[in-house]
Backbone:
């Protein structure tokens, strides 16, 4: 990966909670605070999906959140990326047999990056964002 | 002025997904200019059916489910559940395990209150304070990781004891962390309490009177900030709290008066960080030697649980207030009944008196001030045969009466 191609764009991130236990939420907020500080790389949480390049989805997509997830996904401008944070969004995890799940996430919206862990460590989330940057560069036809 | 009554109120819906909300919940505000006239909210957006799943799993498996009821107060839920099952099955928890449970629970309180303080600062628009509190919070996360192996969802409490011992080599790490917080507490208190902006935004904002706090059965720091002297660690000691001297922290001890406002909730939570440090120090010095679990072999533990018959409750003072688990076992692998009442469930209704009459700009800090945890609470929507219905109060009452009758049989 070439460093200059990585830094030509800041990633703005939108966070969507689809029925998570809060564990991933606090690790995402821990990720953006000074110990890890990804704002160095221009990464920042934004309040609207219309401003975002990447959507972080946590949680296993419960029944009531499915429609909202689809609507929020449709509001994001292209090119867009989806990161699935946490095991329960990837496979259902500990909630696999619940009657109220519409997930896993990739059955509702297409997922580009999976970050496993229950919850994943901040380092893992940052690693996932680096992977997302590489993918975004490829989608735009630039980068390595 | 005469057509004031004819004017339709302006309705502001917020949620279920909104940047000001960390978790999905739907608010409907009836506004009159800038002032909130009426408020209604609809939780249940994050319902995962945890109790239903739990009644199909055995207690050793459920412990991992209780950790994930809520990512912030995982130990409290697991501890409450484990205590209920231990009472049904007659398992005697070793004393050392009780002390380790207490230490982990208090570290959880420290990180949860610091987390909350940061979120509160953020809601007030004071982002540098958010970053400062979350920076110092990382040290408690490091210690928790050192003690349990995980930063979040610790997985340390097991039915009958804990999974890991605290060895002598870990004491300096804990001491170091406690020293940092005890040194920082004065600074944090003055940053939050002496700051002119925070005082102006939080004093007499979102007031919950003592009477309302009692009527709405609020628990934890929300109740204590309104001057209600409740703390399970003092009233019904569990784990090692019986040996320790824990007194509920009330705002009048520090400020000399009780307002029951957002400011008092900040006071109570920050002072509890200091109290937790003292409790951990006391636990470390008085911790007896011995085993950390009543039954190491999981197969044996499951056999004991399978034989158990009866019902019990486990109550734990979580960072947000009382966390209550009811378990009924009837000689099968899975519990016959499992009911969870998380602390936020008791506190949510206090939003309505707090928000009424406040300005729209104060909504985020008032909502945040009870430290709501919706992933714990959402268990209302009912789905049967692919058909969803939301239960009204009468239906819930009817179901509740039926359930009581069923349990009495």
Residues:
């Amino acid at each position: 990966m070439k460093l200059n191609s990585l830094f030509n764009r800041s990633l703005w991130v939108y966070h969507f909670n689809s029925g998570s236990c809060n564990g991933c939420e606090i690790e995402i907020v821990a990720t953006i605070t000074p110990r890890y500080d990804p704002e160095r790389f221009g990464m920042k949480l934004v309040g609207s999906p219309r401003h975002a390049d990447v959507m972080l989805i946590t949680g296993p997509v419960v029944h009531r959140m499915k429609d909202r997830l689809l609507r929020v996904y449709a509001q994001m401008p292209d090119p867009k990326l989806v990161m699935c944070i946490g095991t329960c969004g990837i496979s259902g995890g500990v909630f696999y047999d619940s009657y109220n799940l519409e997930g896993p996430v990739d059955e509702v919206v297409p997922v580009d990056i999976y970050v496993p862990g229950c919850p994943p460590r901040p380092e893992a989330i940052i690693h996932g964002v680096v992977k997302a940057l590489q993918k975004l560069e490829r989608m735009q036809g630039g980068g390595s | 002025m005469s057509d004031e009554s004819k004017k339709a109120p302006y309705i502001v819906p917020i949620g279920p997904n909104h940047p000001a909300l960390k978790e999905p919940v739907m608010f409907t505000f009836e506004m009159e200019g800038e002032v909130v006239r009426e408020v209604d909210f609809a939780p249940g957006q994050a319902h995962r059916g945890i109790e239903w799943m739990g009644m199909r799993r055995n207690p050793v498996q459920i412990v991992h489910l209780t950790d994930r009821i809520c990512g912030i107060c995982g130990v409290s839920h697991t501890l409450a559940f484990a205590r209920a099952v231990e009472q049904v099955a007659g398992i005697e928890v070793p004393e050392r395990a009780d002390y380790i449970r207490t230490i982990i629970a208090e570290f959880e309180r420290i990180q949860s209150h610091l987390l909350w303080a940061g979120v509160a600062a953020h809601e007030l628009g004071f982002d540098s304070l958010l970053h400062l509190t979350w920076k110092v919070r990382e040290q408690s996360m490091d210690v928790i990781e050192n003690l349990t192996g995980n930063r979040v969802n610790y997985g340390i409490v097991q039915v009958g004891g804990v999974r890991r011992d605290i060895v002598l080599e870990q004491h300096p790490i804990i001491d170091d962390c406690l020293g940092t917080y005890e040194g920082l507490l004065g600074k944090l208190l003055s940053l939050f309490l002496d700051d002119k902006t925070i005082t102006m935004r939080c004093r007499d904002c979102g007031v919950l009177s003592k009477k309302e706090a009692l009527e709405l059965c609020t628990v934890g720091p929300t109740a204590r900030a309104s001057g209600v002297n409740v703390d399970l660690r003092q009233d019904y000691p569990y784990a090692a709290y019986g040996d320790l001297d824990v007194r509920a922290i009330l705002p009048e001890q520090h400020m000399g008066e009780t307002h029951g406002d957002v400011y008092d909730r900040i006071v109570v939570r920050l002072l509890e960080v200091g109290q937790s440090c003292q409790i951990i120090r006391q636990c470390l010095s008085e911790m007896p030697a011995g085993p950390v679990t009543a039954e190491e072999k999981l197969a044996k533990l499951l056999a004991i649980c399978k034989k158990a018959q009866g019902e019990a409750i486990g109550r734990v003072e979580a960072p947000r207030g009382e966390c209550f688990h009811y378990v009924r076992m009837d000689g099968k692998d899975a519990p016959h009944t499992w009911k969870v009442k998380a602390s936020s469930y008791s506190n949510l209704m206090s939003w309505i008196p707090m928000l009424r009459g406040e300005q729209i700009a104060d909504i985020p800090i008032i909502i945040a001030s009870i430290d709501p945890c919706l992933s714990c609470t959402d268990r209302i929507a009912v789905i049967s045969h692919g058909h969803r219905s939301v239960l009204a109060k009468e239906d819930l009452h009817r179901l509740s009466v039926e359930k009581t009758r069923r349990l009495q049989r």
Observations:
- Residues 6-136 of chain A form a domain with the Rossmann fold fold (CATH 3.40.50.12280).
- Chain A touches chain B through 39 residues (CB under 8 Å).
- The mean pLDDT of chain A is 84.
